[in-house]
Amino acid sequence: MKLLILVALLGLASAAVFQHDLSKIESKRTKMIKAGTWPAYRKYKDFLRLAKAPHNLKSVAQNVNDYEDVEYIGNITIGTPEQTFLVILDTGSANLWVPDTSCGNGSSSTCPDYCSDADFCQFLCDTSCCSFKKNAIAKPAPKASACANKRKFDSTKSTTYVKNGQTWEIQYGTGSANGFLGQDTVRFGDAGTNQLVVPNTIFGQATSISTFFAQDPIDGILGLAFQSLAVDNIPPPLVNAISQGLLDQPLFTVYLQEKGNVDNVRGGVFTYGGLDSTHCSSDVSYVPLSSATYFQFRMDSIGIGSYSSNQGWDVISDTGTSFIGGPQDITDALANAVGATYDDQYGTYFIDCGANIGQTKITIGGKQYAIDAKQVLVDAGNGQCEFAFFPFNSGGFGPSWILGDPWIRQYCNVYGLGKKNIGFAKTL
Ligand SMILES: *[C@@H]1O[C@H](CO)[C@@H](O)[C@H](O)[C@H]1NC(C)=O
Ligand SMILES: *[C@@H]1O[C@H](CO)[C@@H](O)[C@H](O)[C@H]1NC(C)=O
C-alpha cells in the first residue's frame, strides 16, 4: 500500500499540468474596419491570392492562417537564460518560429513592386517606399525590415542552444516567413511563472518575415496542432513535451475569456496536460477527430433563428481565427435569418448592434451547443456590429468550416493530441 502511494507520488512529480495566461487584443482587422482602411487592405489580400494562383492551385482557396484577426496572445521564452517572445497560440498551425537576430539583414531591402500601388503601400511598405514611388527621380530607398520592432532570438546568448541550420519557409494566406532551424529549451508562459519547460525543442529562427507582420504586436507564432500539419514535419513543441513525458495527459484545454471591445487585457488561459477546473465544467463531451492534422471533426448542423442546415461538414477549432468561417451559401443564409447584410467592400456582414438575434445553434456528435448573441456581435464602431461569420472557400481541400474564437469563448475546448479527439465543456 505504502509502495503504491509512493509510486503514484513519483508519477505526479515527473509529469504535471501547467497554466498559461493570455492577453486579449483588438484584432488588426477590427482596428482597420473602425478606421475605414479595411477595404483597401482586402484589395491587397485578393491581389496576393490571385498572384499566387497560377503556381499553386490550392492557394486560390482561403488560407486558414490569415493572422490579421488574431485576438489572443501569450508569452513564451526560449534559451538559457530565458529570452521572451510574444506569440500567437495557434491551434490552426503546427510550427514555432520567432525572429532571429539576423532577421532583416538579408538582401531583400528594396521596395517590392506592389509598393507602387498607394493602397498597398500604406499597409505593407515602409513609408520611404511609398514616397519614393511618387518621386521617380529618387533612388530606391531601403525598406525598413518587418523585423525592426520585434524581439529577436540571439543564439550566442543561450548556453542550451544546439545548432541545426536546416532552412525552412512557411507560406501564410497573406505573408510568409523563412529562416533556419535551431534547437533549445522552450518554456510556455511568462518568465517567473510556473512554466512548462520543454528541453531540446526544434524551432524556426526567422531571417525574413513579410511586411504583413510588421504592424502586428506579436513576434512569432506557436503552432499547437499535430506534427502531420507541421512544415518539414518538425515535432511541434507541445508534441515534444508529450513525447518527453512532461504532461499528466496528452491534451490541452483552452479557455478564452469574453472581454467585449477591449485591447490588451488579460483574457484567457491555456492549460497544458489537463482540464481547467477553474474556468470550465468537468462535464466534457468528446468527439473523435476526422483528421488529426488540424483539430478537425464533424459538425452535423448549424442554424440561427428560423434557419438551419444539416448538410454536415468537416470543421476545425482554431484559436487563431476571430470569427466563424463557412461555405458562403450557409453564411449568407445565417446572415439573412438575423437581418445582417453583406458589405462587398468590407467583405463582412454588418448588423445593428441592438439587433435581437438569439443564439446560434450547432450540433456536434448528436449534441446541441448554443452560442450567445454577444459572441457573434462584434462592435465595428458607430453602432454598427459585424455578424461574426465569414464566407470561407476551402476550395475543396481540408475543412469547410473554421470555428474560431466566438465558439471557443462560449465553450472550453479540450484538444486531445494523444487520443486524437476534441472535447467541449461549458465555461463557468
Ligand atoms: C509578456 O511579457 C512582457 C514582459 O516581457 C509583459 O510586459 C507582457 O505583459 C506579457 N504579455 C503577456 C500576454 O503575458
Ligand atoms: C543583423 O543586423 C543587426 C543590426 O544591424 C546586428 O546587430 C546583427 O549582429 C546582425 N546579425 C547578423 C547575424 O548579421
Give structural notes.
This protein is α+β, with helices and mostly antiparallel strands and 428 residues long. It is built from 9 helices and 27 strands. The strands form 4 sheets. The chain has a 6-stranded mixed beta barrel. A 6-stranded mixed β-sheet has the order 12-13-16-25-17-24. Strands 15-14-20-21 form a 4-stranded antiparallel β-sheet. Strand 6 and strand 7 form a beta hairpin. The two termini are 37 Å apart. Bound molecules: 2-acetamido-2-deoxy-beta-D-glucopyranose (2 copies). One 2-acetamido-2-deoxy-beta-D-glucopyranose binds next to loops. InterPro entries: Aspartic_peptidase_A1, Aspartic_peptidase_AS, Pepsin-like_dom, PEPTIDASE_A1, Peptidase_aspartic_dom_sf. Belongs to the peptidase A1 family. GO terms for molecular function: aspartic-type endopeptidase activity.
Question: What is the CATH first-level class name of the largest domain?
Answer: Mainly Beta
Assign a percent range to the helix content.
10-25%
Large-scale geometry:
globular
Mean pLDDT: 85
The overall number of domains is: 2
Please count the helical segments.
9
Report the biggest beta sheet as strand number plus sense, adding barrel if it closes: 6 strands, mixed, barrel
- CATH H-level name of the largest domain... which superfamily? Acid Proteases
**What small molecules are bound in this structure?**
2-acetamido-2-deoxy-beta-D-glucopyranose
Signal peptide: 1-15
Disulfide bonds: 103-147
Domain Peptidase A1: 72-425
Active site: 90, 318
